[in-house]
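tl;dr need the bound structure. longer version: we got a ligand (S-adenosylmethionine) that a collaborator sent over and nobodys looked at where it sits. i said id run it. heres the input, straight from their email, havent touched it
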Amino acid sequence: MDSGEASRPRTPSNIAAYFGRLADTYGDGAYYGNRRQAVLDALATEIANARDVLDAGCGNGAYLTKFVEAAGIRTVTGIDLTFDMLLSARNRVGAKCRLLSANVSRLPFKPESFDVIFGSHVLQFVVDIEGVVAEFVRCLQPGAVLIATGQRDDGVRHTLSAIVGPERWREYREVIFRRAERREADARPKDRYQQAFARAGLRVEERAAPFTVTWPDIAEWIRIRWMPLIPEAERGRAEAMIAELAQAGASRTLTQHEPLIIGRRER
Ligand SMILES: C[S@@+](CC[C@H](N)C(=O)[O-])C[C@H]1O[C@@H](n2cnc3c(N)ncnc32)[C@H](O)[C@@H]1O
């Protein structure tokens, strides 16, 4: 089991405390930029047809900045648990969208408020996935779509663990990859999302958003995504591990596939 953050239970206040420390930087850098662009490309049709969009678990607004620029979109709303993420989102997006502090398990919206609900890397922090999906569906208009990203960053972590081997990897997980909460890792989280979407009566489709990253992109991602969570005293150790990974993996280019689960409500 991971140490530090990882031993905390998955409560809203623990999640908010965890993401509060990432509020200024989450989503920056080439790794996230390439991934986000791949997702936006894969969703070009849905975005072109969207009018009223909810970004659920919007974080610091990396996707909101894109939605507010899309030609046909009339209203953009972002919600998040983490107040500092919302502050950062407000700085990035300005007044062009509505931002609310809310939990996805209880949406402060009337039924049928949105024609697109988008949740990027948020369902993995939810305990009652079926309940949250039902709440999303309550807020979908007939014919509207619910879109969720289907996995964590396990593709990269899996590759890194293969580079250093299982024993060293345990140490890497403890020092660098501190998760938000204690949980059993979902082997195939996207399958769970698909099942929850189908149970809620949505017509489900899976789509992959492929993107490519190089080693320098991954080293940058580790510094952006994980370093702020590492206590000051252990950062030197983490930097040494990044250098070790660089030696082993410097020439690698990785193609990742961000899975998107898309559920359409019948008209
Ligand atoms: C991994 S970040 C993803 C941020 C953003 N969606 C993106 O892809 O750039 C997850 C975000 O979900 C938020 N979050 C987690 N659980 C939530 C919940 N139950 N309700 C609302 N937001 C939640 C966190 O505060 C955090 O900002």
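gonna send this back to them w/ a short note. The chain has one domain: 4-152+180-213+258-264.
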